[in-house]
Write a structure and sequence with these properties.
This is Glycosyltransferase 2-like domain-containing protein. The chain is α/β, with parallel strands linked by helices. It is built from ten helices and eight strands. It is elongated, with a radius of gyration of 25 Å. It starts with 5 loop residues before the first strand and ends in a 13-residue tail after the last strand.
Amino acid sequence: MSNRKKIISFVIPCFNEEENVLQVYRELKNVITKIKNYAYEFVFVDNRSLDNTRKEIRDLAKKDKNVVGIFLSRNFGPEASVHAGLDKTNGDAVIIYEADLQDPSHLIPQFIDRWEKGFDVVVGIRTKIEDSLIMTLLRKTYYKIFKAISDIYIPVNSGSYGLLDRKVLRAIQSLPEKYRMFRGLRAWVGFKTDYVEYKRQKRKRGKSSYNFFRYIKHAERSFFGFSYLPLDLMVYISFILVLLSFLFIIAYLLIFLLFGNPIKAAVTIVVSIVFFGGIQLLAISIIGKYIQVIVEETKSRPVYIIDEILNEKKKSVGEDLTK
């Protein structure tokens, strides 16, 4: 029976986080070294930052061989950063920790404890987010809409912060799709899941690369990647409109036979064209979005391309990386 330590891998996606890289490393190392009987590795993924993030990661990797630096060839987006890091981990369990330091690291022992008690997935739930009122309302609205229309259950205000068992990670990696949303895939694969609530802190250093339009694109990815309700609604609305149109025609013919032609045809035609034209345009737009997803999948392009890796671990899971 092997006495080797279980490995906890930390995936830290970064974009323009030069002020936070060292702070993240110190904070996570301080937490994990207090937990006995575990080895660790830190997998920093730089999404082609425009500042000195790459240099900061490189300096850490020189000092600590348990720091893996992954540098992508360009900015492939936040989802690509997460999946690049996950693909290069060696841990028995993996924790995703964003480099903005807004998620409290003191929850990590709780995550590990729940994992040791038999939970395959531990998800952090943000009970409060220190953000502007508008963004808070928009975020809550998004989660509620997504929860209502999605085929899977994703708790309101659940982020990427959490823990995955190695078998869960393998299940996610086995999915062939390129149009990815990590939180959706994590929920879709299932497994025994537990939740830990926390208050998300305000960013202290650096500036978030997320803005309103990025949130819209992220919402699109979740809606069209994990729900067919928009297509279903199109079918139902089309059926109702056809039924109403048929009833309108019958009513119009009865009025015409009984009272002549009291309704001005020009007004009826214009209103009908504008109304049904708008419905058709909306329907075509929704179909177009689903076609876009199909096109992205058929291209079979990789989710990310790696430019360089530092301290890549080629050991199998189960080997003590601290040796």
